[in-house]
Every structure is written in C-alpha cells, then in structure tokens.
Predict the structure.
Amino acid sequence: MNLIALFRRDSAPVARERLQILLAHERATRGQSDLLSILREEILAVIGRHVSYDPEKVQITMDRGKSVSTLAVDIEIPNGSSRLSAIHA
Amino acid sequence: MAQVLVVTSGKGGVGKTTSTAALGAALAQDGAKVVVIDFDVGLRNLDLVLGAERRVVFDLINVINGVAKLSQALIRDKRLENLHLLPASQTRDKDALTEDGVAKVIEELRTKFDWVLCDSPAGIERGATLAMRYADSAIIVTNPEVSSVRDSDRIIGLLDSKTVKAERGERVDKHLLITRYQSSRAARGEMLSVEDVLEILSTPLLGIVPESKEVLRASNMGSPVILSDPKSAPARAYSDAARRLKGEQIPMHVPKEAKSLLNMLFARKAA
C-alpha cells in the first residue's frame, strides 16, 4: 500500500489544474453563451456537412469591442480527412 | 438596516441548510433579530434541521398566495427567541413562487428583522434564482471538491448578473464558506486546500468549517450545531463566520479535525 502511495501523484494539484483550465473557458463564454452557442451549433452543422472534424478541436470565441466585435472560428481539420461528397445527399 | 443574505452553492449536499441554521442561530444568539427562509419548495428541510418540523402550519407559498399572513407563517425558535423560520411548502408546485410575491415577502421581512437569511435550493432553476434575487450579499457554500467549486463559480456568475442589485449596476457582496474541510487530507495533497479554492474562485473567505461528527449530530437532533455542541470546532467556525458577517475582524482559523484513538493507531504517515 505504502509503496503504491509513494509513486502515485497527489490528486489535489490535478484537480486544481483541471478547474483552472475549465473555469477560464467557462468564464470567457459566460454572458455571451446564448448567442455563441447558437452560432457554434449552426456553424458546426454547416462545416460538418462537408468535412469531418474533431469536436474537441473547435474554438469559437467572440471579442466585443467598442465599435467592432470579432468572431473567431478556429476548427482544426485533420489532413487527409475524406471530403464528404455533398452530391451524395 | 436589514441585511438580506442568500446562502447558495449550485451543487446540492454541500451544507447550505446546515450553514443557514448555524449562522442564523449564531446571529440570533448575539441579540439580532433573524429570520431564515427555506426556498426549497417541494423539498423543504430547514424546518427539520432546526427541529421545527412539527410546528409548520403555514408556509412561504401560503403567504405569497395571501392564504396566510406573514405573522401566521413565521415560527419562533424554542431555544432562541430572536430566531424565526419561514418554512417552504412541502406539497405545492415550485411555480407558485413568483417574483413579485417573493419581493413583497422580503420587503416586509426587512422591516421586522435585522437579518434575512434565504436558504437556496440546489441547482440554478427558479427556486435558486429567486432565493438570490433580492439579496444584498451572498454566502457561497463550497466543498473542497471539483464539482462543488465549478458550481460555485457558476453561481458567482449568476450573483453578478441575475440579482436586482447586479441589474442596478451594484455589487452583491460575496463571501465564501468552505465546508466539510479536512485539513489533514489537504496537507497530504488528497484534497483541494483552502488556498486552492480561494485562488480559483477569488472570493473573500468567510470561514472554514471542518468535516465533523458534531454537524451530523446537530441535524440528527434538530438543533443548530452552535447550540447542540457549542464548544465543537464547527460551532466555533460558524460563530466566527457570523461575527465576520457583522463586520468584526476575527483571525481566520484553519480547523484541524480531531483524531480518534483508532485513527491515531492506524494512521500511516505518507513518506
């Protein structure tokens, strides 16, 4: 038992790190979550009809400025991912 | 000037009701007039934790509907004459809670009491948002555990956006109450420490309540821990927290859990 405990990593720092990453993300999207989640859903629906992507590798952010706001859509598409034929449908 | 406080957390089972009862009792013990309101319509428990479950006649919804007057629904504590309970309804639909109704009840309570403590239900639905709606300040009850911390962060976001004060551009004062803390496990890196939680939530600390058998005993007995075991570590943590709420400067004390003889015999030191 003690030997295993010696080599096992403390779990509290892991919890702390996971929370910091998660909450940074959740706070950034708070407030704009309504508009952003609608945009996210619809953009991904369109993209997904044509190429396959990893849902984990999608970043959609909105920066609100005084006069202009920017919407950044960053979707990582794996090389060689088969292009779905749109004609098929 | 009455202070309206919401005791909230997002996550269930972290100690909102226990904390509401203990803080309410601690404030009342010091002579202030205190009312604790149970907002958990359908799943009321504050009456049980306060040992008043057999004295409930009318409830919050009855008052909102005009079936009963506020004075008929308020239950005075048998041990502390300054402590009053406004119970939740056990049977009615939670949609019976209306924003105007709650506003009226809180306004009336403000004129009669020094402290109005709103015990929020878990979640972020109607009951929880109405419990915080008219609050001047908030106590966020958090366990040193990932899901509780995450939900607390969510609740902090709601306090900053969905309360009347926030909508007026003012701030709801927020206080963090860490409950079920086990300092030895935190020291061994098995549990988030107080510092971790504070850094993540960046909210001022109101108190640290240790995991302890006295808290369980208190709810078994239907008596706030302040009264059932006044010398215990959790009672001290709650009474210190209550004094901090009143603006007193009390040094923060990280409670150590009492080790039983058995634990000491079998304790294995981590290398």
Q: What stands out?
A: Residues 11-29 of chain A form the longest helix (19 residues). The radius of gyration of chain A is 20 Å. The beta strands of chain A are 58-64, 69-75.
